[in-house]
Structure formats: C-alpha cells, structure tokens
Design a protein that fits this description.
alpha+beta; Alpha-Beta Plaits; 3 helices; 4 strands; elongated
C-alpha cells in the first residue's frame, strides 16, 4: 500500500469573508471526498479570507496510481476553484 500527500496553497484575491471563501473553494470536499481512496481537509490559513490551504491524502496500491490521481486532482482544481494556486507539494510515504 502506498500513501501520497498533496498539499495545495491558494490565493483568493478580493475574498471578503469566510463564507465567500467557502463558496469560492467550490465544494472540494464533495468533489474529491466521494472517492474512497481520497481524504481532504483544509489544513492551513483557516482564519484568512484571502488564502487557503488544502491537503489531500491518497491511498493506492502503487505509486503510479497515486501520481495519476494527483495529476487528475490538480487539473480539476485548476479548472474549478475561483482563485490562484500558489504552491503544490507532493509527498509519498
């Protein structure tokens, strides 16, 4: 079993409230939490309106499957989140 950790930092320019922040992040939990191999949480910048950090933990039988899923997740997030991705890090355990 392999574990991957994908951490993505966002800038949300012009975001004025935590409610707007949740709306602009666009339901990442609903999109990626349905996959039993993926767990997601907001891991940083919890009290800042104009920034967010999400961490996804991915479990699979091979590192290649994790890398493929990470790429799919990154592409989908770039298309759907109303904000700029500032940093993406991948870690494998």
């Amino acid at each position: 079993m392999h574990i991957g950790i994908l951490t993505i930092s966002f800038s949300l320019p012009g975001c004025g409230s935590l409610k707007e922040k949740r709306q602009r992040m666009g339901g990442l939990h609903e999109r990626f939490g349905r996959n039993p191999a993926v767990a997601i949480c907001e891991s940083g910048e919890l009290d800042k309106h104009e920034a967010s950090e999400c961490t996804l933990v991915i479990v699979a039988t091979s590192k290649n499957k994790i890398e493929s899923l990470c790429s799919q997740i990154e592409e989908k997030i770039q298309r759907t989140v109303d904000g700029r991705i500032m940093n993406i890090t991948q870690e494998f355990l």
